[in-house]
Structure prediction request, 221 residues.
Amino acid sequence: MKKIGMLTIGQTPRDDLIPGLMDILGPEYEIVEAGALDDHTLEDVNKIDLNPDHYILVSRMRDGTEIKITKEYVVPQLQEQLDKLEAQGVRLTVVMCTGKFPQFRSKGIVLTPSEVLRGVLQSSIKKGKLAVVYPTAEQMPYAERDFGREGVEVYADTVSPYENDDVKGLLDRLVREEPDLVFLNCFGFPYSIKRQVQEATGKTTIHSSALIARVLKELSN
Prediction:
């Protein structure tokens, strides 16, 4: 059985994500999970300084509680968890987050999805309007910097992957904006949101975790 390590920036297990990933990967794969905050309590997390100058990330605790942390805080925690995964024989690991991350120290391959996703977006839309849906409003100001380029207009919006948020409001806004392509820019978005967006807009919608699962399958062969 092939092992794939999955690093979340929150806590494991990620019962909301793993079944969908396994549907794509198939029964010959074993997912070994590790979370940057596995050894933390919610009280610990609430004490983390959310410096507005640092990139804010959104994840969840194992009980489903949505939390926000900074990339600066979480990177060293991810490295520690990666070391533990590799001690178990894992040699292909994915960071389950669409944010940008540095090169990790590793004995194998560590896939950071942002570069893969950006490449797909750049090759899929060279002219027109790209809608980028974020998990939190704090990330929206980065949309133009990260995805804007000549010929491509970027529209940014937000909806929580974890809370009972206003998905209908998001759908109404996307229909009004008439994008040519929609990008769900968070691993935490359930596949149901992709289906809702596609049905409402009639446009191709890129679901981050589903796309990366297919890349992992290729890398593991």
